[in-house]
Amino acid sequence: MATYRLKVNGQTHDIEALPDTPLLWVLRDNLHMTGTKFGCGVAQCGACTVYMDGSPLRACSMPVSGVENSEITTIEGLAGREAEAVQKAWVARDVPQCGYCQSGQIMSAIALLQANKNPTDQDIDLAMNGNICRCATYVRIRAAIHDAAQSLRG
Predict the structure, then answer these.
(1) Contact, 30 vs 86, CB < 8 A?
(2) How confident is the model at residue 154 (pLDDT cuts 50, 70, 90)?
């Protein structure tokens, strides 16, 4: 065991964990931030997406030892124009069915809109690639991203 100092959603936490403990389990088990989900454990489904220093990262495959001195943002810590636009569009388009993948979907959508305020379908598909929705709401996800982008340009 070792102690790691993590900055998550603007707050600093000292965490006792093994060096290879995935960040996902530190967030969920140590910090009780359960918005980030476990889906596959091999960084293929996107349910565990968080930001590390502003960039999307799969928390299931990143060891806690690799994120010390980085700014981690989870779904619980989202704020700003893009986050508000995506959340409103998600509700308006009734995107979630089961909802399990949605925190990862939303994190990826916000990262896209922070980089590109006018994404094409191809831009959206590329940015959302690797975010699996078991309920197959991809058409609503794409429409919601277009709606959010329009409101940001608006």
Answers:
(1) no
(2) confident
